[in-house]
Every structure is written in C-alpha cells, then in structure tokens.
Amino acid sequence: MNSLSVSQNSHAGMTMLSNRFIDEYMKDANDAQMKVYLYLLRCAGTDLPTGISAIADHFNYTEKDIARALQYWDRKHVISLLYDDAGKLVGIRLENLDARAADIISMPASAAIAQPAVTVCPAPVRETASATASPSSPAVDAPVYDKSVITLDRVKAFKQQEKTSELVFITEQYLGKPLSTENIRSIIFMADILQFSTDLIDYLVQYCVDRGKKDFRYIEKVAINWAQAGVSTPEEAASYAVKYDKNVYTVMNALGKTSSPTQKEASYIQKWFRDYGFTPDMILEACERCVLATDRHRFEYTDGILQSWKENGVHTIQDIQEADAAFQKKKASRGTRTAASSNPFHQFRQNQYDYDELLQKVKIN
After folding, report:
1. What is the rounded distance in angstroms from the CA atom of residue 345 to the CA atom of residue 337?
2. 16 close to 41: Cβ distance less than 8 angstroms
C-alpha cells in the first residue's frame, strides 16, 4: 500500500512542539485534530512514512476523520498538503510556526512520486496568485467548492437511498415545503464534498431554521464555515456556534462571566431562549436579579427565576412589574398579620362569653 511522505521545516531527529502552536492553535483544536498533528510530528521526527489509512487505523478513526483533520491544519497553515498535477495528495509538510517563511515553497518534483492509499475528500482546487498581486504577498491556498460536479443522476440516486431519502423528508418538514432539485444538490454538496454526516446535516438545517433562515444559500454558507473550522459532529457544531453567538456572550457578561461558556452553561442559555422562549431583555432582567442575590450557582439561580416566570405566565417586562407589585402587596399584608400575632397583648387565650347570660346569673344571686 502506498504511503505519504511527511517532512518538517525545522529540526529533525526529535519530536518538538512549538510554543506558538500551544499558545495560538491548540485551544481551538478538537481531539482528532490534536492527535493527527502530534502523530505527524512523530512521523516527521523519525522519517517514518505514513498514510491516511495508517493514521485512521492507529487511532481507530475513519479515513474521513483523518482527512478533515488534515484539511483543518492546512487551512490554519500549520501544515501544507502537497498535491500532484492530478490533484492527488502526495505529501504533507509541517510548517515551522516559529520561523515561517513568507512564501510557501513547492515540494520538489522528485518527492511527488508516492500516491496516497486514499484521496483526501474533497481534494481542494488550488487557486494561484493573481498576476496583479504584489510580489511580496504570499499566495494563499483556499479550497474552492464546486457543485457543478453533482449530476442529475447523483440527485436521483440520492433521493432513492433509504437513509438519504429520510434526510430529504426531515429537511422538507423543517422548511415547510418540498425540496427542489437544486436544494437536494445542496444537501449532496454537504454530504459528498464537505463530508458532513447525516446527523450533522440534520442539525445544520435545524440550526438555521431556528434562527429564521430557510434559504439554502445561507445554509450552505454556514456549512462551509463549519467545514473550514473542522466541525464534524453535531456536538462540535453546537460548541462552535456558541462561541460566536452574541446572545450567549451578552448573558455571560450579565452574570459576571468573562470566560467562554462551558457546555453546561451554554445548554442553560440555549434552554432560556429556545425552550422557555424568553426574549433577551427578560433573560437579562433575570440575570440582574440573580447577580444582586448571589455570587454562587448563578446559572441555577437564574434558571429558577426564569422557570418560575414561565410557569406563572410572565412573558414581558410589564408582566414582571405587575407580578412584583402583587408580591409586595401580599408581603405587606403578611407582615401586618405577623406583627399582630407577635404583640404580647394578644398572646393569651381569648374566651367567648355570653354577657347576657352572665348578667342574668348575677341578678339571680
């Protein structure tokens, strides 16, 4: 089985991890991406040849997982994927992050001899620098996604497959209309070219519809954005979306949180917006009350406030004001009764006498 050559732009003979990688790149990478990069460093340090299949077997991942991880690091310019004239992946170069050259030098022709066991999908079409570009400007490789390769026969076959036909049906339910041929071509684009799983496409469509976006051009843009960020599962998509959700960070700031939300914190915020259906001003009002009341377990406390409002039909700021007024009135009334019961002149047994009967007894005696 043919394998890929892995070379490195810096020291050989040892496995070195750049401080810049740790400081700038590691925090955003998922487990698969981290493992693949570290394994490539190991292979480069010992001049061991490897391939997509070998890496997939080593970590018990699918070849698609490895391909996505490689493309992720290529987009980050941490590695360079080297292709031959036919668009086949023939090598991987690990860039020296601490002393990166301004221009990416092509792999020598003599090195481009081994063919990989598996083609990286999608194999990006590389753009060359414009003739009018500045000589000092480095050429930046970017994947170009082309839907024209998806034929009508592919669309027909896609609709006839049991698993994918179910995805088409679910998507139609989300959008509330039948899908056109172009819509189905977009779904095939996500499945075949972006390598999205059925679950991820399902989550993507639901994510966009929940935000009032039913245009497939918008859905495709979100899909490409996720693909470029290395998103490969619904869980990763949810985590990635949270990072760039303005509402999430507004709520985090309102609760005095300056860090990125944890998965549990993000689930609370999503529940308040999606499940409870509260507007941002209602949620921020609950956050403000929470901050004034406690500095611990603020998400749980805020959730209790919002859940109480939901159960009592409080949906607007005016509803809150009316509920507060009713509560204060009830509290004042309860306070008056409490004060009366605590008066020492009322702390004795009060008998009920029939004064007319008593007077009659006195006259008789």
Report:
1. 14
2. yes
Taking the C-alpha atoms of residue 310 and residue 313, their distance in angstroms, rounded to an integer, is 5
Strand partners, 82: 91
Helices 298-311 + 317-341 axis angle, to 10: 90
Q: How would you list the strands of the sheet with 79-83, edge to edge?
A: 5-8, 89-94, 79-83
SS3 at position 155: helix
Question: Using one digit for the tens of pLDDT, what is the confidence trace for 39-72?
Answer: 888 887 565 657 888 888 888 888 888 888 888 8
For the chain, list the domains and their CATH numbers: 5-111 (1.10.10.10), 147-234 (1.10.10), 245-341 (1.10.10.630)
> Can you list the pairs that 57-60 forms with residues at least 24 positions away whose Cβ atoms lie under 8 Å?
59/32, 59/35
Taking a C-beta distance cutoff of 8 angstroms, is the pair 92, 70 a contact?
A: yes
Helix, strand or coil, per DSSP, at residue 83: strand
pTM, two decimals, is 0.40
Picking from 306, 267, 260, the residue whose alpha carbon sits closest to that of residue 287 is 306
